[in-house]
Amino acid sequence: MARIAYLREQLARAVRLAKAILDQQTAQRLQAFATECRTELQVLTQKAAA
């Protein structure tokens, strides 16, 4: 469960920063990281639910 909470925090931060930052390359990297976090979150929550 600690990993799930960590991923949720990182996802929220990445999304918030990607919206606020002016550098496109950095914003794209943050969005990619957010996507990775979402994917891992889905996997972990499915395992936790099973």
Explained architecture:
The protein is mainly α. It has 2 helices and no strands. The chain has helices at residues 2-20, 24-49. The mean pLDDT is 93. Helix 1 runs antiparallel to helix 2 (24-49). The chain starts with a helix and ends with a helix.
Describe how the helices and strands are arranged.
Elements: H1 2-20, H2 24-49
Helix pairs in contact: 1-2
Summarize the model shown.
The chain has helices spanning 2-20, 24-49. It is built from 2 helices and no strands. 90% of the residues lie in helices and 0% in strands.
Distance between the termini: 14 Å
Count of helical regions: 2
Query: What is the tally of beta strands?
Result: 0
Low-confidence stretches: none
Specify the structural class: mainly alpha
Oligomer: single chain
Mean pLDDT rating = 93
Percent helix: over 70%
Biggest beta sheet summary = none
Q: What would you call the shape?
A: elongated
Strand portion = under 5%
Q: What is the gyration radius calculated from CA atoms?
A: 12 Å
Topology as H/E string?
Answer: HH
State the main characteristics:
elongated, 50 residues, single chain, 2 helices, mainly alpha
